[in-house]
């Protein structure tokens, strides 16, 4: 999948000699000696590195996902939890503008991922002393590391999948789609483990909430700033249980960093075909994120990542507080979110396999219809403990559609903007972060019903914009490169590298 910047599915020549070792120069360069001995001969290098990235993210987001879902409930006093998330995603918004291309070019994907994971661990530590002086600064630090982390991950998997496709003579978009599908299957399962841990730990509290009918009337779409029921319905767990939970999460984050340092091989950012070429100046790298906005397709796709951030923020910030915690209690937050994570994880794997048969458009249509149906249900439903099954079914359906945005958005950006992957993924994280900022920033000022109407409007706009881009691509097909064109293959190989 190394075509022009406006190509979407060029086929690699079948006789191309590029193999996965081309992007991993030397005998496991910069790999820990212990890892070399343990992994030698066990599995092919490309698969090995793919699994290291996937399970590194699994460990890290087992901790972060569970903790994020509890922020608005665990630190509800004075709106600290929501303010923390707002600062976090505001920092992601800023870092997406310039940090990812600079850090990836200078340090490579491996060390960008490693350093960014350290920012997450700092945030976990900041939660031990839940105050404005610890949570806000560490959330900003996490935000600065989040955009480079995801951009490096997307770049790493795209290069890995493209290289594997060339080796097998397959369509790059199919292999990359499969890679992202499996990755998000593993990654989204982190929500299952993270939420299960939080529910088991916090479920040990001796206080079980019982809510009056008057309190329950203020839950759900009727939850507004002037209503106090949603916040007064929260019984805080003991400090000992909170410390136990945070210790488990911090340990999981540290293990993720060690896994990446010891076992992940860096992708060569100076392939032989690019030797002797001068690196672009710092200012050029700095502005690459904004320069790519000159591409009409990227501007049209802005509502897509924006909605991705809005819908994730709604579920983790609004649903957990105004529906689950308000009507059931904080100890149920983890359990209901497990349904979301499990559905999203399984569907990510499924979509990665069937997308080559159904195409992207069918999956996007499925996600749009599913989320619109859920939004209507959220507007009409009055949460009540007697309707226990609904609390689990709705997050599950939300996860079915979320898997579409997580897998197909990443593949779409990797295919459409192949020659500018770092800048494209930085743009994606920028607009996605803006969606989170809007959700958490407006959390205390808008009723839940208003937020749901905004979600429906942005989703409709995103669907129309995506359809327009697909139509533009169908009107500008690009033929596959001619077989036997070795010079062209060499040129495409160079474009694939970082």
Automatic annotation (TrEMBL):
Main location: membrane
Gene3D superfamilies for the chain: MFS general substrate transporter like domains
Domain of life: Eukaryota
Annotated region (Disordered), positions in chain: 475-498
Membrane topology according to the record: Multi-pass membrane protein
InterPro entries in alphabetical order: Ion_channel_UNC-93, MFS_trans_sf, UNC-93_regulatory
Membrane-spanning parts: 47-67, 79-99, 111-128, 140-159, 179-202, 241-264, 298-315, 327-351, 363-381, 387-405, 452-469
Gene Ontology CC terms, in alphabetical order: membrane
Signal sequence extent: none
Subcellular locations according to the entry: Membrane
Biased composition (Acidic residues): 489-498
A Pfam short name: UNC-93
Keyword Flavoprotein: no
Keyword terms of this UniProt record: Glycoprotein, Membrane, Transmembrane, Transmembrane helix
Similarity remark: Belongs to the unc-93 family.
UniProt protein name: Protein unc-93 homolog A
Organism, scientific name: Octodon degus (Degu)
Lineage, uppermost ranks: Eukaryota, Metazoa, Chordata, Craniata, Vertebrata
Gene encoding the protein: Unc93a
